[in-house]
Amino acid sequence: MTYVVTDVCINCKYSDCVEVCPVDCFYEGENMLVINPDECIDCGVCVPECPIDAIVPDTDERGEPFLELNRDYSTGPWPVITRRKDGMPDAEKYKDMKDKIKLFSEKPGEGD
Known about the structure:
Blueprint: E1 3-5, H1 16-20, E2 26-28, E3 33-35, E4 55-57, H2 67-74, H3 91-94
Antiparallel strand pairs: 1-4, 2-3
């Protein structure tokens, strides 16, 4: 088992989770974060830090569809992020929106 970031993160990108990760397995895209499932040690400390419940186990039905997306973008073009940043400017507007995958951007974030 590993943890994954779901589309709930899109256009919110709260990064409280990255500061508690003991193995720095978060990667930053333009409008969401992902977890590298091969680096994640399944400790779960990031889960309660996410204010919008965007992080779930890959065995959860909500997480399973996002396992490959997390793997693809954490092992490719997106930089690692280890320090908390402010959420996106319109995060409050998007936090309760459903099916945000249509807003997903493949562009990398800044990292740290």
